[in-house]
Amino acid sequence: DVQLQASGGGLVQSGGSLRLSCATSGFTFGNYNMRWDRQAPGKGLERVASIDLGGRYTSYADSVKGRFTISRDNTKNTLYLQMNSLKPEDTAVYYCVVGQSRGQGTLVTVSS
């Protein structure tokens, strides 16, 4: 079974930083593109950032471009999301995604 366990969320003040991690198992991590999605309270899912299987190519939603950085460590089967200059509108549950599989998310709350 594909396992995607996100962690690192929490409560942070506006302008602060957090680093999310996603520990994976049950598939060959280095063979798959990965991404982070998020869902804010009362809203739909939003694609936040994606990264290719080798970690060379990344893309970001306009709303986070320049503030968030997606990365991966294929030796540790782990995906990361560095989030800087956080804003209240970044408040959401963040999910690690591979293909059609979405793991248990981690809640990020940004206070103003």
Would you spell out the secondary-structure blueprint of this structure?
Layout: E1 3-7, E2 10-13, E3 18-25, E4 34-39, E5 45-51, E6 58-60, E7 68-73, E8 78-83, E9 92-98, E10 101-102, E11 106-111
Structure description:
The chain is an all-beta fold and 112 residues long. Helices cover 0% and strands 54% of the residues. The protein has no helices and eleven strands. Strands 2, 4, 5, 6, 9, 10 and 11 form a seven-stranded mixed β-sheet that branches. The protein has a four-stranded antiparallel β-sheet with strand order 1-3-8-7, with no helix packed on it. Strand 4 and strand 5 form a beta hairpin. The radius of gyration is 13 Å and the shape is globular.
Keywords for this entry:
single chain; 112 residues; mainly beta; seven-stranded mixed β-sheet; four-stranded antiparallel β-sheet; 54% strand; globular
Summarize this structure briefly:
The chain is built from no helices and eleven strands. By secondary structure, it is an all-beta fold.
- Sum up the overall morphology in one term: globular
Strand content: over 45%
Outline the low-pLDDT stretches: none
Number of helices: 0
